[in-house]
Design goal:
The chain is of the alpha/beta class and about 700 residues long. It has 23 helices and 21 strands. The protein binds adenosine-5'-diphosphate (ADP) and magnesium ion. The site of adenosine-5'-diphosphate has 19 residues, from α11.
């Protein structure tokens, strides 16, 4: 048998672009068009116009000023034009010889010396003009436009593009976009628009043909997520009744006891999301809820209350955090809150001693541990729960979809095949359209107000030249018994450099603060430290507050790389200095800033920037720092971040599994997003076979539009 023919280079490239099926090719849409349908008379062409002209070569020479170039004079009877080529081949000299009839396309420049065109696209003027605009497709190396164009047209000819929208869906779409086309016509227009097509509408993607494609794409995304949601609804989860009485009627329910013991009242926002979660827990289907709330909005206590309900009903609960520092901090807080109520809390991390781990694993497997707090260690294979009822994931965007799925598989023998409920928390709010689009398979609860008594954080953008003033400010904070964070950037190319940076700053601050009396300790925390050392330093910094009565905190300043980015809570810290703030992303800056302003004291954030050798900061960096100075509202920050980065990057880190939208633009296509959101459930219920065909057409084998 002959070996299968290896794929050619362009075939491999097609595969790389995901263009395997006819329909994939048909849905591979042009980036832009070139207009080769018309010839413009040179006499009519004005300066700066992109035109195609046709004429006879009347002169050719190689010039040397200002540098070597090929000069070709074209005459079309109405006027002449000089075509200039700086890099040229002998073959071009031959093709553009005197007497040749040429078509040249490019931008015309008028001028003192007459009309010229720089590096026009030229070909022999033979045959008829094409009747349609020439599409230019997104491509990759090894896949030339003409080959791709041919493949796309062939695919378009063979693909099934019959209607998959239900009649009601079509009717409501016409309300959004009155000149809506069907898919077949829309694709015809997009792949070969006629000579009269509105080029600018095609290029800025407002043309009805684009509207149709965007609507289709958004609907596929919504449908796939609603399908995932319905699949999930077929699973069972423990119904955790939200009665106020516990199973033991002699005492109040655990969550009531916790509420009574807390030193504060819940905010109305916390109350509301608490109710939303309680209602989910009471159902027989697994909860998949995203709890979003700005940094410091008090998500932990909401999670603890949910855990109480679950434990009270006789189920175990797990809380997973992305870093050991954060997990440790949760542990401390939860033990403080729940241990007095008789809740047994276990602890799992990567750095744990073998003996302790064995003991913890035994507690978890037997069900003696009610609540398990930890890092990724919680989802490792050898961790066996007795009956897991609720899994809570803090800073969920730090985890991949696979890790979330792993938690769901951990329900344990006592659960009798029921899945745990899932509560995901995030401090990076997701702008509304983005949430509607990418989190349609999740329920979202939002804590939209901070606890009372927080004073706003004053943010200053300061050049690194004024470092000495900043250090003076640190001294002032320290003498008032306050604490200070100093964050150094992670230098991606070099972890070593990153370390040098942080250590140098650490030494600098130690020297600058050495004369304080009583002495102040400057701590150092970086990503390369062993977890145990990180823990010690963090604990020392957290304890600083307790020493304020006797003078300065023992550890007044914490110099750190971004390991403190997520969730660290030291209310006595009132000043945050971020060095090389221009290197951080907007959300990251906001997260970091959220480490201060947690107590009642007035807090400040100093964004130190350095332009290095450049005369000034880049545009984007400047925009980010400006946004930080202008607003403290996490939702506004997220909106601007989305604007600056686009959804791909915005979602990138948090949703590695998500297929991004190719055509629709969440910022401008809101009406279509809303249409798709309203249409998907209806189609699934009333036209399941159309819905299935639609999703298969758009997603093929990929069902990864975020299946949580
Ligand atoms: P985040 O939402 O960023 O995880 P935390 O749960 O860490 O925020 O809460 C931040 C701080 O606010 C903690 O010290 C917490 O005890 C406190 N806190 C939470 N809820 C309230 C409230 N209703 N009133 C006062 N303080 C609160
Ligand atoms: Mg938190």
């Amino acid at each position: 048998m002959p070996a299968p023919k290896p794929l050619s280079v362009p075939q491999k490239a097609l595969h790389k672009l995901g263009l395997d099926r006819d329909i994939d090719l048909a849905l591979h849409l042009p980036l832009r068009y070139e207009d080769e349908t018309r010839i413009t008379r040179l006499a009519d062409a004005r300066d700066g116009m992109a035109v195609q002209v046709e004429g006879v070569v009347t002169h050719q020479e190689v010039g040397f000023r200002p540098r070597r170039q090929l000069l070709v004079t074209l005459d079309d009877g109405s006027d002449t034009c000089v075509l200039r080529f700086f890099n040229f081949y002998p073959s071009q000299q031959k093709a553009y010889a005197v007497g040749a009839k040429l078509r040249a396309r490019g931008e015309l420049q008028g001028g003192f010396m007459g009309k010229t065109m720089m590096h026009p696209t030229c070909k022999a003027a033979t045959g008829e003009l094409p009747s349609a605009l020439t599409p230019v497709y997104p491509t990759v190396a090894g896949l030339p436009q003409p080959y791709l164009r041919k493949a796309v047209l062939a695919g378009l000819g063979r693909a099934d593009v019959s209607e998959t929208l239900a009649p009601q869906a079509l009717a409501s779409l016409k309300l959004v976009s009155p000149n809506m086309l069907n898919l077949h016509s829309a694709l015809q227009v997009l792949h070969h628009p006629g000579p009269g097509a509105a080029l600018h509408e095609l290029e800025d993607r407002t043309h009805p043909a684009w509207q149709r494609l965007k609507a289709e794409e958004l609907l596929a995304q919504q449908l796939s997520q609603h399908m995932a949601r319905r699949e999930r609804d077929a699973f069972r989860a423990p119904s955790i009744a939200s009665s106020s009485n516990s199973s033991n009627s002699n005492r109040d329910a655990l969550h009531t006891q916790l509420l009574a013991a807390l030193p504060f009242e819940l905010t109305p926002a916390q109350e509301r999301v608490g109710q939303e979660i309680a209602a989910d827990l009471a159902r027989h289907v697994p909860m998949h809820r995203l709890l979003q709330g700005d940094v410091g909005s008090g998500k932990t206590v909401v999670a603890a209350l949910a855990a109480c309900r679950c434990i009270d009903a006789g189920w175990q609960c797990a809380l997973m955090a992305p870093t050991e520092i954060l997990a440790e901090q949760h542990l401390r807080k939860l033990v403080q809150w729940l241990a007095p109520l008789g809740v047994q809390v276990a602890w799992l991390t990567g750095s744990q001693k073998k003996k302790e781990r064995t003991e913890m694993l035994a507690q978890i497997a037997s069900g003696r541990a009610h609540l398990v707090v930890g890092t990724h260690a919680v989802i490792q294979d050898h961790v066996q729960f007795q009956k897991l009822g609720l899994a809570i994931i803090d800073e969920q965007h730090r985890f991949g979809v696979a890790q979330r799925l792993a938690l769901r598989d951990k329900s344990g023998p006592g659960s009798q095949g029921q899945e745990p409920h899932l509560l995901m928390m995030t401090a990076t709010p997701i702008p509304r359209t983005l949430a509607m689009s990418y989190y349609a398979d999740l329920d979202v609860s939002t804590i939209d107000a901070l606890p009372p008594g927080r004073s706003p954080i004053v943010t200053k953008v300061v050049s690194d030249h004024r470092r000495a003033e900043v250090i003076e400010r640190i001294r002032a904070q320290l003498t008032q018994g306050r604490q200070v964070y100093w964050v150094c950037p992670l230098i991606e190319e070099s972890e070593a450099l990153d370390l040098t940076n942080a250590t140098a700053t650490h030494a600098e601050l130690q020297a600058a603060l050495a004369d304080l009396e009583p002495p102040v300790q400057v701590g150092l925390l970086h990503s390369r430290m062993p977890p145990a050392d990180k823990k010690t330093v963090m604990a020392q910094f957290a304890q600083g507050a307790e020493h304020t009565q006797v003078g300065h905190p023992t550890m007044g300043v914490l110099v750190s790389t971004t390991v403190i980015e997520v969730g660290v809570d030291v209310p006595n810290a009132s000043l945050m200095v971020i060095e090389h703030a221009e290197r951080f992303g907007l959300s990251q800056l906001h997260q970091l800033r959220g480490r201060v302003g947690r107590g009642a004291a007035a807090s400040a954030c100093v964004l130190l920037y350095s332009t290095g050798d450049a005369p000034r900061l880049g545009e984007l960096a400047r925009e980010r720092l400006r946004a930080m100075a202008e607003t403290q509202d996490g939702f506004e920050i997220a909106r601007r971040d989305l604007e600056l980065r686009g959804p791909g990057e915005f979602l990138g880190a948090r949703q590695s599994g998500a297929t991004l939208l190719r055509f629709a633009d969440l910022a401008t296509d809101t009406a279509l997003v809303e249409w798709a959101q309203a249409t998907a459930p209806h189609m699934l219920t009333h036209h399941p076979e159309l819905a299935a065909r639609h999703v298969a057409r758009w997603l093929g084998g990929r069902t990864d539009y975020l299946k949580a």
